[in-house]
Amino acid sequence: MPIKTKLTEALGIEHPIIQGGMHYVGYAEMAAAVSNAGGLGIVTALTQPNAEALRKEIRKCRSLTNKPFGVNVTLLPALCVCSLPRLCVSVCCGVDFLLLHVVRCACGRRRKVS
Question: Is residue 18 part of a domain?
Fold first, then answer.
């Protein structure tokens, strides 16, 4: 039975459950399974070596579910494998939600991400 909340209505999901971005297991199959179960599945961008591979993973997830899913994009410069603008364009082609994390430096100041 679906649980109706502001979150479920805003995201178009049945249950207020959002899969976390999990680096080593956040692939299309898991995201689609969560979405098909009524939550919001998340593909982790860092599971892919480049922007084209990420586009393929997003397409794969879309082929496995007709329900909303998102992509977790880490903005930690040391971990990013391609430029942020290129990655965002890759993600925005066929995904319902984009989760961006704000990264703070150890000193507490925000870093400008270009």
Answer: yes
